[in-house]
Write a structure and sequence with these properties.
Layout (H helix, E strand, L loop, with lengths): L1 E4 L14 H14 L3 E5 L12 H18 L3 E5 L3 H9 L4 E4 L9 H8 L2 E5 L17 H19 L6 E4 L8 H9 L12 E2 L5 H7 L7 H13 L4 E2 L4 H16 L2 H10 L13
Parallel strand pairs: 1-2, 2-3, 3-4, 4-5, 5-6, 7-8
Helix pairs in contact: 1-2, 2-3, 3-4, 8-9
């Protein structure tokens, strides 16, 4: 999943494309680089970010989505927590609603998504973007995130969203400390017990910066390590800024994850081949 932020204030300056033509071109380049899903957002949800009005968000994302729907057959996702924005995006051919509130922020979101027959990404967040990093606390972060996502899945299914159209996201960096983020990534397989594909978004985030003492612009290798770890722990979709590089990471990691002793022995005894059929992880 390639990230396109039609914003002026997203945390990573390299992902800010407030101009419609620039955002469209960026998305098409990500598609050419191998993105299977293009995720278009018009409101930053970085820590401390103020909300934008519904009309401003619509004005930002709809022209980009209209352009993309006529120029690519890639799946399109709208990153929004507002039902009215989702409704407008879905009317313009969007396939997925990526909601950081897991359908809990706008009471119409589940209905709008269900009526469109769209897919949904349910992300866990403690608090709101404005305050979520002020003092996040959990007794057991994995158990609490899993329980919250389980409730969100039930909410989606009650609204009529197809069971096989639901993806869960632990919300790395959304109301979590460094320790919380690392624990969630290391124990990601626990979330697989929900029976839904897992999306993970670690790209250039602050927890990587804390580990490496680096700014967002210098976190690509840290991102690569986190993407590989997420895939090995069971992520099916990785949301990234650097599609070409992370596509390579996903391809190699999938090959390692899917290798078996039989395929390895076949490669040794029968000639050089990787013996794997990479599948599952989209970037």
């Amino acid at each position: 999943m390639g990230v396109v932020n039609v914003t002026t204030d997203s945390f990573y300056t390299g992902s800010r494309y407030p101009d419609v033509d620039a955002a469209t071109s960026r998305a098409l380049r990500l598609a050419e680089a191998g993105a299977d899903i293009l995720d278009i957002g018009g409101e930053s949800t970085r820590p401390g970010a103020p909300p934008v009005s519904t009309q401003e968000e619509l004005d930002r994302v709809l022209p980009v989505l209209e352009n993309l729907r006529t120029q690519t057959d890639r799946m399109l996702s709208v990153d929004t927590r507002k039902a009215e924005v989702a409704e407008g995006a879905l009317a313009n051919g969007v396939d997925i609603v990526n909601d950081v509130t897991a359908l809990g922020g706008d009471l119409r979101m589940a209905e709008v998504t269900a009526n469109a027959g769209a897919g949904v990404v349910l992300m866990h967040m403690q608090g709101t973007p404005e305050m979520m990093q002020s003092e996040p606390r959990y007794d057991d972060v994995v158990a609490e995130v899993k329980a919250s996502l389980s409730e969100a899945v039930a909410r989606a299914e009650r609204a009529g969203i197809a069971s096989d159209a639901i993806v869960v996201d632990p919300g790395i960096g959304f109301g979590k400390t460094l320790s919380h983020n690392l624990t969630l990534l290391n124990e990601l397989e626990t979330l697989a017990e929900l029976g839904k594909p897992i999306l993970v978004g670690t790209s250039r985030k602050g927890f990587i910066g804390k580990l490496l003492s680096s700014e967002a612009e210098a976190r690509i290798f840290g991102t690569a390590a986190s993407v590989a770890a997420a895939i090995l722990r069971g992520a099916s979709i990785v949301r990234v800024h650097d599609v070409s590089e992370m596509r390579d990471v996903a391809t190699v990691t999938d090959a390692i994850r899917n290798a078996t002793s039989a395929s390895v022995n076949g490669g040794v005894n029968g000639g050089p081949h990787d013996g794997a059929s990479p599948q599952g992880s989209l970037s």
